């Protein structure tokens, strides 16, 4: 079946002036991933936003945290499931499959994290991220205390909120632009 032939439904510059730093980053993506993720290509419309987005994403998802990389990806996919974000479910579902070395877990989190057999700590974390996404006005101290009761530090709770908030933002960007995931994500780590 043919894949959609667009990155987003807005016209992107043919030869964007993204500067040497971002060009080197794109080359690193090609080297490590075999592609430049379409979310990055989408931001070539605004090179300064591309730089800021990339820096924030890398700090948030790859930087030091009491949350593992897998846990951060699990939050990303849970939020994206609540928002039905095709791009992020495909791209970050692949990251779960890779990090967990478990294709089934990636699918469970994408479709319904509640069916996965998770430790109580991760279940509470995903329940919180889901609630923050679908009914943020209902998040209360009892929800934060529930995270503390599972051993999350104040900094960990901040990181859970930060990751959930970031993916609510990126989901809306993906929906608004009709962003399509790179086809390579579908085939990996199955």
UniProtKB/TrEMBL annotation:
Coiled-coil intervals, chain numbering: none
Keyword terms, alphabetized: Oxidoreductase, Peroxidase
Gene3D superfamilies the UniProt entry points to: AhpD-like (1.20.1290.10)
Domain Carboxymuconolactone decarboxylase-like: start-end pairs: 47-111
Pfam families (alphabetical): CMD (PF02627)
Signal peptide: none
GO molecular function: peroxiredoxin activity
Protein name: Uncharacterized peroxidase-related enzyme
Originating species: Roseospirillum parvum
């Amino acid at each position: 079946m043919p894949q959609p032939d667009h990155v987003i439904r807005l016209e992107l510059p043919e030869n964007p002036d993204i500067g040497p730093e971002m060009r080197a980053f794109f080359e690193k993506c090609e080297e490590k991933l075999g592609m430049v993720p379409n979310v990055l290509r989408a931001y070539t419309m605004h090179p300064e936003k591309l730089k800021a987005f990339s820096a924030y994403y890398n700090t948030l998802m790859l930087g030091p945290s009491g949350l593992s990389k897998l846990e951060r990806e699990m939050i990303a996919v849970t939020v994206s499931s609540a928002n039905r974000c095709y791009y992020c479910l495909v791209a970050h579902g692949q990251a779960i499959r890779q990090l967990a070395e478990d294709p089934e877990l990636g699918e469970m989190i994408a479709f319904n994290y509640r069916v996965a057999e998770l430790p109580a700590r991760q279940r509470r974390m995903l329940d919180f991220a889901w609630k923050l996404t679908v009914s943020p006005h209902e998040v209360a101290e009892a929800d934060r205390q529930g995270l503390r009761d599972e051993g999350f530090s104040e900094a960990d709770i901040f990181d859970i909120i930060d990751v959930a908030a970031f993916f609510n933002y990126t989901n809306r960007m993906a929906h608004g632009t009709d962003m399509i995931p790179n086809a390579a994500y579908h085939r990996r780590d199955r």
